[in-house]
Fold these 2 entries.
Entry 1:
Amino acid sequence: GAGVSQTPSNKVTEKGKYVELRCDPISGHTALYWYRQSLGQGPEFLIYFQGTGAADDSGLPNDRFFAVRPEGSVSTLKIQRTERGDSAVYLCASSSTGLSPLHFGNGTRLTVT
Amino acid sequence: TQLLEQSPQFLSIQEGENLTVYCNSSSVFSSLQWYRQEPGEGPVLLVTVVTGGEVKKLKRLTFQFGDARKDSSLHITAAQPGDTGLYLCAGRSYNTDKLIFGTGTRLQVFP
């Protein structure tokens, strides 16, 4: 079956612009996670959804970051007024329950110039 | 803030050597997972340990969860070039079930 799909795979944007990153989880997976990863580092937790609701958004760095999952499947991570420090690989993962292993997508590499 | 520190940060060894990677925290976790990540891809699960003191073996890899559920180790016997990658531990929070990743250990195995 299909795995977790993230689009786009690469995104280059100018400082101050708005970006949206999309995640299509594995069908039927109720839990969805967003992480941010810098080169050679471990993924940094951003937000975790159970169904449509954010179970834990304590990792969002500031109010420029927002994520939605309106129908409990596809999720969008939205970043307003991008800054160069936002440059990283943004990883999405899904799991069948909140306690099951995570299945990751290949990430979106965001570069803010 | 829960923090998982991994050591060493980098490891470069010859094929056939043994190695151990450590994952330490001051927090207690309900379970702990180990992942391996290759460039351009997402992390892939290797193992989950749930009981304090638990030891799991996966071919040449041995995983241990500390008695107090705050730390873990990964031991690789007779490393091979195919073991090269970024190894990540990840602890699950009791409070919200979120999964927190460690700082990572980059392993390079030379033929």
Entry 2:
Amino acid sequence: DIQMTQSPASLSASLGETISIECRASEDIYSNLAWYQQKSGKSPQLLIYAANRLQDGVPSRFSGSGSGTQYSLKISGMQPEDEGDYFCLQGSKFPPTFGSGTKLEIK
Amino acid sequence: EVQLVESGGGLVQPGRSLKLSCLASGFTFSNYGMNWIRQAPGKGLEWVASISSSSSYIYYADTVKGRFTISRDNAKNTLYLQMTSLRSEDTALYYCARRGSSYRGYYFDYWGQGVMVTVSS
């Protein structure tokens, strides 16, 4: 199975700050990478798919980049509603595997 | 609006069975692959099983293969997960999720609210 190593495990950011979360795959996943946000007690919401495509309705301050084995999610200007857990998903090879998650809090 | 509503969870003893359902609405269910994904308390996400739109292709995680069966009824817009020989490590919040279709890669674009399964004596 492809292992997804996500970092950092937790992050504290000030309002308006730009932050990045990284995911590294154990092998090339050819941009088959999605990012999700999960707020407390809620189901995951898709933010980014195909590494850099913004899901409809997601604010433009979210962006994704990367290729090969290295990918990142950037939030340009932290907002209060961005608090939550974030995780990546590789969909290049079965089984689909998730990163371990990043807990993002407001400083 | 896409909606996925899971049901059928609960407390069950080890070795027993349970069947989860996921009722879909707001889209043409028969056009989409569907999945079950679980999240154990305080843990990360684990993909469990997937089924193609016409049930032609079915895949399972090694941790549930031989014990769980995914199925669907397109006439009823419903996805199922039959779970047998349940173990304590199957305790989790189970989500049904739709496979995204905007590109060829595998991802999930909509998730239900989840249903809790607790395996304990």
